[in-house]
Each structure stands twice: as C-alpha cells, then as structure tokens.
Design goal:
172 residues; alpha+beta; Aminopeptidase; 8-stranded mixed beta sheet; 8 strands; N-acetyltransferase domain-containing protein
C-alpha cells in the first residue's frame, strides 16, 4: 500500500451501509470457498449491519475515503462471554471485536493488522483496558492475526450456534 494513501478509522455512517454489506457478503463467500463454517448460516446479514450502525457499534477503516475494512466494536456487552470454558484475563470493562470484514479490493494488504492497531488506540483512548474477541477454529487467518497481535487464548465460548475460540488482550 502506498504511503501517500489517506487512511482513516471512523464510525460507520448509514450512508456506508450498502458498501459494508457488500464487503460482508464478499467475506461470507471467501469463508465458504475456504471451507470455513463461520458466517454460513445467514448471519451476519443486512439487518445486522443496519443495527450495528444505528447503535454506534460499526466502524470502518477507509483508504482515500473508500471503505476497506468493517468492524463492530461493542463495549461491555457480549452475553456469550459470561460463560467461558476457561478463564478471561480480566473481569473489568472490555470492548468486543465482532464482524471483521475486508473488501476484496483491499485484501492481502495487511489491513486487518492495521485495523487492530487503530482499535487498540481507540479502546485505550476510551480508558478501557481490555479487548475480547472470538473466532472459529477454522479461521486460520484471524487466528494468526490474534497471535501476531499478542492476544491470549482464554478458552471457548458458545456463540451464534457454534463453539468459538476466545481471546483477550490487556492494553494497560
């Protein structure tokens, strides 16, 4: 990626909804082709995106004002995380990362790693010390990113009809 590109991390707007939904559909299809069971049961869907944006959970990473990556960031609210087979590192406030999706047009450029940097800065700026995230066993790309970014495997959670690997990173 050229260094003169203008990269911005911001809240998603309702006007971004169609492009975000398109990007999520690309991710659903990519997972299907890669043989992953994640996101193959009608979730997330267009309503999920609309709900994320209206609740201020939706964020985008834009390159030259074009949406490249989508993510939902949810403060202190993931009921599934209250029962973990294992143990979280902390019991205080946290932010949950959900629904990371990269546009086909920008895939393979390391943008998810960049996204995680922006998320960590943002979460720290909100004075929240911990990020929690889960992913499928069969999502090697995300598992690799979590490992690279220093997320600690905490155990398993049951979410959206399946067992997920749960991770946490303590920021401060």
């Amino acid at each position: 990626m050229a260094h003169n590109n203008n990269v911005e991390f911001r809240k998603a707007r309702m006007s971004d909804k169609d492009i975000i939904w398109e990007i999520i559909q690309q991710s659903i299809e990519r997972r299907r082709i890669n043989g992953s069971s994640q996101w193959q049961n009608g979730y997330p869907n267009e309503q999920t995106v609309e709900s994320d944006i209206s609740k201020n959970f939706g964020y985008v990473l834009t390159i030259d004002n074009r949406v490249a990556v989508y993510v939902a960031l949810i403060f202190n609210d993931e009921p599934a995380y209250s029962s973990i087979e294992g143990a979280w590192l902390t019991n205080g406030e946290f932010v949950v990362i959900h629904r990371v999706a990269v546009s086909e047009e920008f895939s393979g450029q390391g943008l998810v790693k960049k996204l995680f940097d922006y998320i960590e800065e943002f979460v720290k700026s909100e004075n929240v010390a911990s990020i929690k995230v889960d992913t499928n066993f069969d999502n090697p790309a995300m598992l690799k990113i979590l490992e690279t970014k220093g997320y600690v495997y905490c155990g398993e959670v049951y979410l959206a009809g399946g067992i997920r690997k749960a991770f946490e990173k303590v920021l401060m």
